[in-house]
Structures are given as structure tokens and as C-alpha cells.
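Sequence and structure are kept together here, with a separate record for every protein. An example record follows, reproduced without changes.
>
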Amino acid sequence: MTVETTTEAPTIEESEIDESGIDPAPSRLTILDPRTGALVGTLDVQDPAAVGDAVARAREAFPAWRRTPAAERGAMLHAAADALEVRADEVARIQSSETGKAVDDAHGGIAAAVGTLRQYAELGPVHRGRSLQGGIDAVDLAVHRPRGVVAVLTPWNDPVAITAGLVGAALATGNTVVHKPSERCPHTGALVNEILAACFPLDVLIPLVGDGSTGSALVAHPEVDVVAHVGSSVTGRAIHLAAAAHDAHVIRENGGNDALIVDAGVDPEWAAAQAAIGAFANAGQICTSVERIFVHRAVAEPFVAALVREAEALTVPGVLGPLVDERLRQGVHHHVEAAVAAGARALTGGTVPDGPGTFYPATVLADCTPDMAVMAEETFGPVAPVMVVDDVEEALVRAADDRYGLAATILTASMETAHRAIAELDVGTIKVNAVFGGAPGGSAQPRRASGAGFGYGPELLDEMTTTTVVHLGLPRTAVTS
């Protein structure tokens, strides 16, 4: 998929917010299928005036929505889940055409979205405050209150599930929402917003279509109380600075440079299969994809050989999907080329294929070093850079030496080593012996360049609310004779 506008393109990753300022000139988004290059459609970008109108309408709708009983809000979220489930085929098809994600995979994200909406439909009414221990003649309470207008900015790589999480938690707690999907999948975002908004009162959920200028106007609006963003780290930092100017609360899950440690003593074939899932699933376009691999020298040779076989099995047409657009493909290939120029070896892949679309082959790089961009930065493509280490101590030190803090995985037969990884890796999520997975309702707290605040789970309800402490004492009445 390629995004084109008639105004100057945003200059930062993801293009969800434009740091260079807001261009008031109208523009259009032109979306191309990343498999074939065929036109998916065009949409008008909404200008700052439209953004201001959306925020004003959401602000006006807020008092009535916050007074709506939580159980009624939950019932509407259940209705939204039902409506999304009924139209899952339609949503999956348009998402696939815009992002290149396989239809079956898109259905998986939609199913997760339906489950998430139902989760918040149930969690919202039981979102508890606390009682505090005070004197016998008074009651002290900590009570949750909705914050107000929530600006939600969602990415293209898992747009439906992430929308359900952020929008669902915001609405369940009595906030109103203005939602701008990524400019890389605006048709998907528009359709999902249409389905969800129809289940709520007017202006409780307001959609926007736009590019970086639209995101800038939304984040900078002084009547926005919360900004919830999933996307790149560069964009996340810009959003945090813009939101701080008017004291908005910021929740953000941003990029990661997730490490995979392969310890001695594990089955190298199994470890390679795990690494392949982590690095190549959705063509590496997952926030928690494996971005760098540290393998113990004792198993390095059979592990790398097996990983190459896993990568080469994905060369069958249709098995590995395309990257979302040519801009991302060029960025991925630049990382690979720079690594090879600095001494890495491409054992398979590493070339831009001929033909239409934006495919990039599953690539295994050996002899990588920490200073290479492919190890130091998020590549966000189907690339598995491997560095051999002498022991698990070195692996843990290398994995921890990173400006990101999203997730990490360790494959080990040693419970002692697993506990060390849990203690020493300062990231939001640590996975032991499985690169993906987790219980429903799980949450995580990214670190450093990877974001701030809890995303998803019951803790996201806390992020979407403020806490008011109430001291309720006994009145003193006048004494009458």
C-alpha cells in the first residue's frame, strides 16, 4: 500500500502526527493494494476546522454520556461487539486490501476486537474505587471519574483490535472519543468507526480521516483531555510533547526492539521455529516482533541453519505477505544493506524482488553486531538479525542495552536463567519459552522509547479515569434549647 497526498508528506514515522506544523490545504489519501498496486480508493483529509468541530461535539456529548449508568454503557459495548462480528467478512476484506494482511489473519484481529469490546462491556460496570481507613466518624473513598474527551490514534498493523481496546476502555468509563485511524488504512478505520458509532448516542464516538496534519490538530487541541496512541516511537514523543502543552494525559504504546535470547540446552529446531514466528509473522510488522536474536554459541550453528530453512520455506508465493507500502520496504532494505556493508552476512533473503506489490523476503542475517541499525533500531520487517554470544550473561547484558522497553523473550531449559531474565530485563512484557501468547485481559507498561502507561486489560480503565478522594464527615447541627 502507498499513501499519497497532494500536500507535502509528513516527515516522521507512521505519519500519525506532523511535527512540521499543520498545513490547512485540503489533500486526499490514495490507497494502493500492497500485493498488486491496484487502487483501493481515495479519501479526503479532514482539515483542522473539522478536527475542532469533532472535539467540540465530543465535549458537548460528554456530560450526558458520563451520567449514563455503567451497565447501560456496557450493554452498548456488547451491541457494538455484535455489530462488528456480523460484518467481520467485510472488515477483513478491506483491511487485507489496504495493508496486505491475509484475510484469515485479519479475521483473527477482528475476533480479538470483538472479545475486547465484550471484556470492557463487563469490566466497566465493576471498575471499583477504594475505601480508605479513616476515623470512626467519617468515611473516606477513592472514586474513579471519566477524564473527558479522549483522542485515539491507531496504527495500521492491527487496526481493529487496537481500536477496540482503546475506544472500548474509553467509552466504558464514560469518556467520549474522537478517533483518527492511520492514514495507511483509512478505509478500514472508517468502516470500523461507522459500525461502532452506530451503537452509541450521537457524538459519543466521532471518526476522523486524515494524515499527519489531522493528527497534529487533534493532539494539540486544548479541549482534548487524553491522548491514546499506538504507533512509532518518533511519533509518540512528538505526541507527548504536544499533549503536554495543554496538560492532556498520554497513554502510548510505541516501537520496540524486542530481543530473543536462545540459551544452551534448548532444541535448536524448536528455537528456530519460535524465532521464525517472532520475526516473520505478519511480515515482521508487529509491535512485539523479534527484532534481534542472541544465541548461545553451543547451539548457534544448528539454530541458524534451522532458521534459514524456516525463512526459505516462506518463499512460496502467498505464504509471506507484503509490507504495507513502498516507504516501509525501502526502510527495511536500507537496514539490511547497511548491516551487510558493515560485515553481516545475508544467509537468505536481503533483496528487493521484481514485480508488483511491496513484498520483501524473509531474511536471516548472521555476524551482526550491536552497532548495526538492524540491531539497534526497530526494523519492522521480516528480518532476523543474529548475534552469537558466549554465555547467557552476555546475552542478558546485550538484550538490556537498549533504548526501547516493550518486550523480550528467552528460550531456556533453566528455571534459574528464566528468573534472571525476569529480574534483569527492564521491559513491559517478558515471555519465557514462547514468543507470543498471554492470558486474556493481560496488560503491559512499556518503558522509555516504547511508551508510557498501561495498555489494555483492567489497568487501562485506570488510565482512562482520574481518581477523586472523598472525605465524608458527619455534619454538626445547631443546638436548640
Notes: The domain at 259-432 is CATH 3.40.309.10 (Aldehyde Dehydrogenase; Chain A, domain 2). The two ends are 84 Å apart (CA to CA).
